[in-house]
Specification:
By secondary structure, the protein is of the alpha+beta class. It folds into two domains: about 180 residues, no CATH class; about 270 residues, 4-Layer Sandwich (Anthranilate synthase), CATH 3.60.120.10. The protein has ten helices and 27 strands. A hairpin with a 2-residue loop joins strand 18 and strand 19. The protein is globular and about 65 Å long. About 10% of the residues have low confidence.
């Protein structure tokens, strides 16, 4: 690239879009990383990096650092996510043919701790101005059939005007009531169907049983097996609507959208802010429907079944040990919950633990997000342990290229900050009418194939709901 990479970041008034960032999810090609009402939303693309193979994280890291090294950055906000930003998703497997990617958008809208901003990014030689950045955002929103409110003294807000219900309520399926989200039943997609993916249910359960047998030989301690199903939606897949519904229904998750990969993950692989790194580890799952008719409160049921289960605690301990062992060489200090907590989501409960570390300098500098990901991925929560043995067994038993499923997805900025979740509870939009959904389960010595199959259906539920498919 001969042109200089330049960015301009200006403040916005967050009060002018009270729905938060989900109100900007009006285009099917939107880039997004949101939780609750905050995060980042991107439009357009000025640069892209792709890679495959075992060095994909480090190659992407080198490309990004080279791009931002001599960037001309004007940043009036100066917080994580301002200035140069790239969104990314990476293949789960080092042998996958799926291309891992970093995408640099033209426009980014950000919201964090009540502070909002707008960034324009360019490789062209024209002057960047606040008025120009606002006009560029207006064009992206306007071309989606959206109403905007962008001028020199105001910020941006958008709601789709193609559907009168969406104008009144920018998040279909949710309404605001005293600041809380009230979820309404969603209309079912006309004629939508589900098809078997790489393995039938019977074949997948046989794979789980084979995995248990391998564990009992002592070859490995844990294995994570995934399966896929294909949804066909004759009326068309509306990615923006899917993202809006996920962000409304799964507010405690991180809703992501990168180049046709969409979902809402409850698991944070690594979040870096300055020298502080944090992660959220999940292992141990219970379908909330299992609490129907049980004595006591639903949460008491979850605590009894999850926290009181030797199998679930063992699976969780393996996942925590996997992450902390890999993170330790990069850390000066680290702490994790001594006891996991129950993470309550609309479809399932999880055993969860948060890990926090202060990063140490390695060879004179603090490790970047992508350098940490290179060391951490894949964790036992999505692969198993030992990693090499589990990875080889996954390839043998799944009959599936996971592509970006269970790989890192998120964003990074030029200052080294970033948030990278694990692409779970998600799907890949393969055509205007076709979506491939993925879900997986941790397999240990006590796993029962029928129970693991039921767990996959619980994990498919967020995407099925967002597509309007009732199962």
């Amino acid at each position: 690239m001969t042109s200089t990479f330049r960015t301009l970041t200006v403040p916005l008034d967050a009060e002018t879009f009270p729905g938060g960032l989900p109100s900007f999810l009006v285009r099917d090609d939107v880039l997004c990383w949101t939780r609750r009402e905050a995060g980042l939303v991107g439009f357009g693309e000025i640069a892209r990096f792709t890679a495959t193979g075992p060095e994909r994280f480090l190659e992407a890291d080198i490309w990004w650092r080279h791009l931002v090294l001599e960037a001309d950055i004007e940043d009036a906000v100066d917080c994580p996510g301002t200035g140069p930003v790239a969104f990314g998703s990476f293949a789960f497997s080092k042998v996958s043919a799926h291309e891992s990617r970093l995408l640099v958008p033209e426009i980014v809208v950000g919201l964090r701790d009540g502070q909002a901003w707008l960034t324009q990014l360019t490789l062209d030689d024209g002057e960047l101005t606040e008025a120009g950045a606002r006009a560029a955002l207006d064009r992206w929103l306007g071309s989606a059939g959206a109403k905007t409110n962008v001028d020199a003294g105001d910020s941006a807000s958008a709601s789709a005007d193609t559907d009168s219900a969406e104008v009144d309520d920018p998040v279909p399926g949710a309404a605001q009531a005293g600041g809380a989200v009230v979820v309404r039943p969603l209309p079912l997609a006309a004629g939508a169907t589900l098809h078997t993916g790489s393995l039938s249910e019977g074949d997948w359960m046989a794979a789980v049983a084979a995995g248990v047998q391998e564990i009992r030989t002592g070859a490995l301690e844990k294995l994570v097996l995934a399966r896929d199903v294909v949804a066909t939606v004759p009326t068309g897949v509306n990615a923006a609507k899917v993202l809006r519904e996920l962000s409304a229904r799964y507010r405690e998750c991180w809703t992501y959208g990168v180049d046709g990969l969409v979902g809402a993950t409850p698991e944070m692989l690594i979040q870096v802010e300055g020298r502080t790194a944090q992660a959220r580890v999940l292992a141990g799952t219970l379908d909330r429907r299992d609490a129907d008719g049980m004595d006591g409160s639903p949460l008491e049921f979850a605590e009894r079944v999850l926290a009181g289960s030797e199998k679930q605690r063992h699976e969780h301990d393996i996942a925590i040990q996997s992450l902390t062992t890999q993170l330790a060489p990069f850390s000066e200090a680290m702490n994790a919950h001594s006891e996991p907590f129950i993470l309550e989501l609309p479809n399932v409960w999880h055993l969860a633990s948060d890990v926090k570390a202060e990063l140490a300098e390695v060879e004179g500098h603090v490790p970047t997000c992508l350098a940490l990901i290179n060391a951490l991925h894949p964790t036992a929560a999505v692969c198993g342990t030992p990693t090499l043995v589990a990875g080889a067994l996954i390839r043998k038993l799944e009959h599936l290229d996971r592509g970006p499923y269970a790989g890192p997805v998120g964003w990074l900025d030029a200052a080294g900050n970033g948030e990278w979740g694990i692409a779970l509870r998600g799907a890949v939009i393969e055509s205007p009418q076709t979506v491939r959904l993925y879900a997986g389960c941790g397999v240990v010595d006590g796993s029962v194939p029928e129970t693991e199959l039921a767990e996959t259906w619980a994990k498919f539920r967020p995407m099925l709901e967002s597509l309007g498919i009732n199962r």
